[in-house]
Amino acid sequence: MIRLFFLIFFILSLGAETKVFVLGSGTPNPDPDRGGSSYLIMVDKTPYLIDFGAGVVRNFAGLTKEWGGDLEVDTTSIEHAFLTHMHSDHTLGLSDLIITPWIMGKTKSLKLHGPKELDLMAKNIINAYAFDINYRINGTQPQNSTGYKYDFFEIYDGYIYKNEEIKLEAFKNSHGELEKSFGFVVTTDDLKIVFSGDTAPSMKLIEKSKGADILVHEVFSETGFLKKTPDWQIYHAAHHTSPKQLGSIANKIKPKKLVLSHILYWGATESEIKLEVAKYYDGDIEVATDLLRIH
């Protein structure tokens, strides 16, 4: 009996298992096989979204048992969403995120964390869909009047969200002239995960990523970059990260797994991108695809 008690205590002390998925691995380019930038962290049965590009709700649904996946949740469970920056490929799924889970029966408000401009975007989306919302509430459809609403929390450099399951810290990255652009450090009982966001090489990212189990970092094709016109090379060099630069970053951090995502392929294949980074870094590298389980 005593032995059983200690076994139960040991299991409980381990905490909930953290699962990490890629929901959308794409960029602004309309690749039909890659949704807009988005990631999912599952702690027990609580989902936490990082970014919400186009297709975010449907890709989330694709991971659930209702639609052939393994997760024992549905879209009504989505309550927490964190945004790295306001670029469209990271936000185009917001209307879907606000409206669809509510239509499916969600009653709790969405907790939105991001730059202050996100608050205005969410308000405008609700105004834009006022006809649909009012019809569903006041018509014959048995719909609640709360699940499309949201609570807003403004993110800044050093912003921390923390509860009993997860801690998320935002840090300013180096996305060209965009001041309100952040990476995230997410810590749970069993993992430290770093999301670079869209960024050129960032010293703060290196500082915050020490001891990371997983580093999810953007990158562009080295071969494709050399084919760009000088004006586009200037732009991409200021806003994004080359394979050589990422190799240097990863060698300093030494994550257990480096995940390449938000990749500007420019005609390269997944294997070619991986090889480009592997020239400079010999650790565990994985190329993100939609619905990929990272951990």
TrEMBL record:
Q: Which GO terms describe its molecular function?
A: 3'-tRNA processing endoribonuclease activity
Put simply, this protein is called MBL fold metallo-hydrolase
Q: Domain Metallo-beta-lactamase: where? A: 35-239
- Keywords on record: Hydrolase
Q: Tell me if Hydrolase is a UniProt keyword of this record.
A: yes
Organism domain of life: Bacteria
Keyword Hydrolase attributed? yes
Q: Which CDD domains match?
A: arylsulfatase_AtsA-like_MBL-fold
* Record SMART domains: Lactamase_B
Stretches of the chain forming a coiled coil according to its record: none
The family database entries (InterPro entries) matched by this protein are listed as: AtsA-like_MBL-fold (IPR044094), Metallo-B-lactamas (IPR001279), RibonucZ/Hydroxyglut_hydro (IPR036866)
